[in-house]
Amino acid sequence: MRQTILQGLEQAYSNFVHMIADFLPRLLVMLIITVLGLVVAFVLKYILRAVLGLTKLDRVSEEAGASRILRLAHLAPMTVLLSRSVFWVTWFGFILIGLGVLGVAGLQGQISRLFQFLPEVFIGILILFLGLMAANFLSRTALLAGVNAGHPSPRILSWSIRFVIWILAISMTLEELGVARQTVISAFSIILGALMLGLAIAFGLGGQDLARKSLERYFGNAKKEKDREPQPL
Amino acid sequence: MTEDTFLDDDLLRQLMGVGEVDLLVGISSHSDANTTSQALYAIERSFQQHFTRQRAVIVNAYGGDQHGGDATARPGNVAEKNVRLAESVSLRTVQRVTADFSVPPSPGMTLRTILAAADLLRARACAVVSPGTTNFTPDWIANLLRPAYQEKFDFVAPLYTRHKFQGLLARNLLYPMSRAIFGCGIRELYSDEWGFSGRLAAVCLKQDVWHEEAIVTRPEAWMAISAISNDFRCCQVFLGEKLRATTGSGTDIVEVFRQTVGNLFWCMESRQSDWLDGERPEPVRTFGPDHELTSEPADLDRHRVFEMFRSGVTELESILSSILDPETHAEIKSIVSLQESEFRFTSDLWVRTLYDFAASYHHAVINRDHLVQALAPLYRGVTFSYLTEHSESSPAEIETASEALCVEFERQKPYLKEKWKAKVEVKS
Question: ipTM value of the model?
Answer without folding.
Answer: 0.83
